[in-house]
Amino acid sequence: MQSVTDAAFESVVLESKLPVLVDFWAPWCAPCRAVAPVLAELATEFAGRLSVVKVNVDEENAVAGELGVRSIPTLVVFKDGKAVEGVVGALSKAELRQLVDRHVGA
User: Fold this and answer.
1) In the predicted model, what is the mean pLDDT of residues 31-47?
2) Which DSSP state fits 64?
3) In 3-state terms, what secondary structure has residue 34?
4) Where would I find the beta strands (DSSP E) of 31-104?
5) 106 has a pLDDT exceeding 60
6) What is the biggest distance separating any 2 CA atoms in the chain, rounded to whole angstroms?
7) Distance between CA atoms of 9 and 37, rounded to whole angstroms?
8) Would you place residue 1 in the very low, low, confident or very high pLDDT band (cuts 50, 70, 90)?
9) Number of compact structural domains in the chain
10) How many helical (H) and strand (E) elements, i.e. helices and strands, does the chain have?
């Protein structure tokens, strides 16, 4: 999983040919740390069909502010440069897979 800065967000996420799952997180957030290994597994399983990236809201908060991220972890799926679905909280692997499956072609 790649960490993305506010400056790189447009090129990495908005201009991506693949759907992108963005994890807005912070190092001090226990639920964020809990969901990180699951996101890493999904990144591997969906390689070539989905990008998974992380935005540390303590260091990079401009995009999070623009998107109205108020709680973390917040996970947002971007497709064709637009946010298409977002969820707040540490979801189970099954719930995250359902989120991804809704936006990634088979």
Assistant:
1) 94
2) H
3) helix
4) 51-56, 74-79, 82-88
5) no
6) 35
7) 22
8) confident
9) 1
10) 4, 5
Looking up tokens 């809201």 gives 57
- What are the tens digits of pLDDT across the range 42-100? 999 999 999 999 999 999 999 999 999 999 999 999 999 999 999 999 999 999 999 99
**What are the φ and ψ backbone dihedral angles of 20, each rounded to 5 degrees?**
-130, 130
Query: Does residue 34 belong to any structural domain of this protein?
Result: yes
> What value does the CA radius of gyration of the chain take, rounded to a whole number of Å?
12
The CB-side HSE value for 91 (13 A sphere, CA atoms) comes to: 17
Query: Taking phi first (over 0 means left), then psi (-120 to 50 degrees means alpha), and beta for anything else, what does residue 48 get?
Result: left
- Structural domain includes residue 67: yes
- Residue ranges making up the domain that contains 12: 2-97
State the catalytic residues.
Answer: 29, 32
Task: Read off the tokens for 97.
Answer: 């897979």
Residue 29 within a domain? yes
Confirm whether 105 is domain-assigned: no
Which domain CATH number covers 55? 3.40.30.10
